[in-house]
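Hi! If you just cloned this repository, the fastest way to understand the data is to look at a raw example. We've pasted two of them here, unedited. The first protein comes first, obviously.
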Amino acid sequence: MTPEPDIDQIREQEYAKVKAEHDAKPTEAVLPEICVTNRQLRSTADDALAALQSVNDPPFLFARGQTMVAVFTDEKQRFVIGEVTESALRGWMTRSANYFRINAKGDMVDIPPPIDVVRDVLALPPSQWRFQSLDAIVAIPILRPDGTILDAPGYDPATQLFYAPDPDLRIPAIAEEPSSDHLQIALEIIDQAIGEFPYADSASRANTIAALLTPIIKPAINAPAPLGLFDAPQAGTGKSLLCDVVAIVSTGRAGEMFSAPKDEDEWRKVITTALSSGTSVVIFDNITRPLENADLCSALTSTIWADRAMRTHSKTSLAVKATFLASGNNVRLAGDMPRRCYQIRLDAKSSTPFLRTGPEPGTNFRIADLKVWTMDHRGELLAALLTLARAWYAAGEPKPRIKPLGSFEKWTTTVGGILEFAGVKGFMENAPAMYEDTDDESREWEGFLLQLDKAFYGEPFTVSAIMEKLKTSTSGSEATPLRSVLPGYLAEAMDRDGFFQKRTGRAFAARADRRFGASGVHLKRGTVLTGRLQWEVIVPEAKPPAEG
């Protein structure tokens, strides 16, 4: 019996014959030729991917968060990271190879890259693309982990960052081993930009320099950094302007301002959007509610952020390279946020700080337009900050005296070391005062839980039962004292039907087993009864005073 012919082998032989005949003809084409006739999809896709890989040097296609992305310029000529769509990849494929099919007469007919080939390449695991991994775009020179400076535009494999400076950016030369004179000049330049703000203490000024340094050193330490909190007693003190100065130095433009989400579920979406854009500075402006969110806490203490990708709902992982800032008037920190922040407190000691004048009539500062000045002197400011950092690395990275902040040990040691070596005093010294100010939440919850214990006579209760008691408004009921001690953001939810239970349930879950106040009162998860979780308030017995 004659064996059946191997169809795949015959097709490959036909393709090889036609390809050889075509290659023998004189041609002006310099791109590889890819035939799609009588071939398996996998073979055509392999050739298409090989052609893409051959032209991706220097790289413009990357893998990021399990997605194929490209670096391109937007309508304002700013470099941005964008997901490679089917149409975009098809365009890159036709620019990397010539695709053709064989018609019935045996002639070669030029065609665009077949859409099924495009989709197959996009669907491959990122490891098969063999594209470089891209974490973010930076618009300034940054430090590498070995202390050297990334100052060559383009992709840097050591940091997995794409350096895209403004074409007009000119940065003065930076000494390999800066001297004390270099440090003094650098601090004077930095002081021109930030020195006139009404800092409440020396720590706030030092922490401002820390905020300026963080985007530069964060790639080097590859570790989390806390949120820079720009705070003031009232509007018009300069918080947003100071945030903009930090952003302009780091990115070349005013900061990307995000409003703090009102709904806890929205925080994750906002963080994913911000990190997906590749921006190096994220600012949450005009904080009006107590700042507390589990997703924000997670983003601040992580180097990798995982979430569902937009539209597809597949998992995406993004490197957390951005520096997070927030601003507001008398911002209240709650939950775990106090130990995830460093504070820059401004206080003009005036009821109308926006009317204060500088040396020039009608101006708030010696520099009439600080944003424009910062943009014009951006290269000098960057050189000054890099000089501070480079001096510390060149000196062997001496450890500072400051106690490392939990979860941010590398950041505290690096920034604290740079500032201490440069002679800047006060870094993080206002942290105890900031923590003390946030004790309001502890006192608030202590009173609330003690009242809950009285309202339910020490018995377990559900969140729905709390709502029922709060609805009772007759004189002499437990509702009146219970309503009066509700934590502020739980009281805000009372007017939205069903929202109180949802917000309270999350607040309880976030505070389970946490001790509050001198009494040590705390919540404990109970049993599930008829599908509803019960809670218990535990009031520790007071210890008798020690004898003698």
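Ok, and the second one:
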Amino acid sequence: MSNWQEILKSVDYPTTAVVLDFESYWDSECNLKKLSILEYLAHPKFELFGVGIDELKQPFQEPHPAFWTLYEERITRLQKEYGNDLEHCAVVGQNLMFDCMILKFFFGVVPKYTVDILNLARYEDARRHNRLEDLCKIYKTSVQKGNNEQFKNKTFSEIDLVALAEYNRSDMIAETELLYLLLPKLENYAKVELPLQTHTLRMYLNTCFNFDFALANELISAMKNELKKSLLNVAWVTTYSRQPLLKTVNSDNLFVTILQGLLPPEEKIPMKQGKNGMIPELAKTDTGFQYLLNHPVKKVKDLCQTRLAAGSWPTHIKRIESMAAQAKVRDGKLGNPMRYYAAHTGRFGGTERINLQNLAGTGRAGQGTHPLLQQIRQLLMATKGHILGIGDFAQIEARITAWIAGQDDLVQAFAAGEDIYSQFATVLFGHIVRKPAEHDSPETIKRMKIERGFGKDAILGCGYGMGAIKFYDRCRANSDLQPLFDSGEYDFDFIEKLIKNYRKTYSKIPAFWTTIEKAFRWVVKYPQEKITMPRFFRLWNEKHTIHLQLPSGRVLFYPYSSINKNGELLWRWGKLWGGSITENIVQAIARDLFAEAILRLESKGFRVIHHSHDEIIVSLNKMFNTKSSLKAMENTMCVVPQWATGLPVEVETELSERYKK
């Protein structure tokens, strides 16, 4: 395996690493658990105590960090040696969002090349705790993370500088050892992952959007009114409880007691498996709770909708307030805090209390998003003299599913731009289904929308093995479809027919579930074996961790994989089967296409300022022809990497002054 310097050299990074670790004041209110990084740095109590620095120039150099209280002088000296933006070295640290924001905030330095230990650890296992103290224990570093409680509430004049320097030294030694250990794990895919990590950090360090404070105030006021109206709608709850309304609907025990009393005698609250047995389905994403939100008994429906409102409106208000607070620190502009490798599949996540990854869209029919939530995106505006170019990969997961399974007829239909949803619905219903036309009667328009909708939901939702029960529950939770099931126009038998038709029509997709599960089980059972599959999938076992190599070369890790006495396939985070493994693979391939498109755009001079799921947003200069720039963006995103030859890709683009869906 290559050493860390060889990895840096392979991606044209400088082979000198400068490890940085700033130390600062903190107390019970002024800290990173209570505040975003920007709010923390701008807090009146914030004070920098110093910085630990270690310059690594040899492949197996022993760490020798030094702690400097004269931090301004040391940063200036680093700039003289490595450039104003430290472009002649790779800046290394644990959670560089913090340390590099200090460089940007106080010194105007935005490093060109960065390696974040936190990101390297996420690449191996995104779902475990990857704090420095956890990594020290997992990888048995020569030193352990120190305890900083001794420095709480103390200003620079009160700090024991010897103790602080020793604390900093231990952290930096651990970070250097982790760099040597973890960076080589990127060897086969470093050309994408390291630049992608740096790209993610730079979106946060540099401002990306103007923020609309006036609209933010309007939304906060309107959301508070919505919450108030929702609570007043269930004022009758006070006859069941003396607690305040908000507390009552948010209390699981009180809520369940009241809800069960409102349901018909023969109906019970939907339950699900919890850690310690069966528990009520009270999460907003639970199918059972989705059904209750549209329950025929009005008080049940009102109570559940109020619980949803009581849990969501305060969260949305806090998000907008945090966005405004961070924009205020940066003179009305907002950077894009994003978490690299936030999921097992490698997809990105949001962070810093604003999570721009899950801003509400329009929602599907029957499950539409509240108009106020849709407007949160519009708080993000193009900066002066620019306009946003928005590009979205169309139906990307369904396309990848067909491609990896060898479902060539479906692949060809996607490539030809055919109406896949209508085609499947036509098979399902036994008569022609199409998109509604303007000259159609209202009855025909309604019927075509519903029937084509079943086709769409099947194509987009059944590729990972969704069964009839789950599909049926989703339909029952849809406010547009529920009356059709209540009336008997559609029933469970119809959903079973839909599932069977999907699996028969696209038979190679369920065959892939079986094949990939068999391969996975084989390498679990026989650790010495390696399997190569079509589309260049490879599976092998190293110390009970299954390595699943994707067509791109990137590897998904499944630690602690085993087969229990009941024949169930397990890994560290739960059960696996062919459908769930397929879902991981498809979402990971979509992420790899996405990642390479981001880097390709940036190599062509586009400034990527945001991306969410399958959508990329660039900032286009109005001085140039924005329509031609948008077309160039589309063409660049549509390039299919060599490893994905034959995969049909389609990108939909538009221009907008504000971020929208």
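That's it. A detail worth noticing about the second one: The longest strand covers residues 48-56.
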